[in-house]
Amino acid sequence: MDHQIKNLLEYTNDYNKSIIKPDQFWENIANSFHWRKRWEKTLNWNFDTPKIEWFKNAKLNLTENIFERLLSTHRNKTAIIWEPNDPEMSPIHISYGELYKQTCKFANAMKAQGIHKGDRVIIYMPMVPEATVAMLACARIGAIHSVVFAGFSASALADRINDCQAKMVLTSDGNFRGNKKIPVKSVVDEAITKTDTVEKVIVLKRTGENVKMHTERDLWWKEALEGQSEENIAEEMDSEDLLFILYTSGSTGKPKGVVHTNAGYMIYTYYSFVNVFQYKEDDIYWCTADIGWITGHSYIVYGPLLAGATTLMFEGIPTYPHPGRFWEIIEKYKVNQFYTAPTAIRALQVHGTDHVEKFDLSSLKVIGSVGEPINEEAWHWYHEHIGKGRCPLVDTWWQTETGGIMISPLAGITPNKPAHASLPLPGVQPVIVDTDGKELIGNNVEGNLCIKFPWPSMIRTTYGDHKRCKETYFSTYKGMYFTGDGVKRDHDGYLRILGRVDDVINVSGHRMGTAEVENAIDEHSDVIESAVVGFPHEIKGQGIYAFAICDNSKKSNEILQEEIKQLVRKIIGPIAKPEQVQIVSGLPKTRSGKIMRRILRKVASKDLSNLGDISTLLNPEIVEQIIKGAGLK
Ligand code: PRX
Question: In the predicted model, what is the mean pLDDT of residues 125-146?
Answer without folding.
Answer: 98
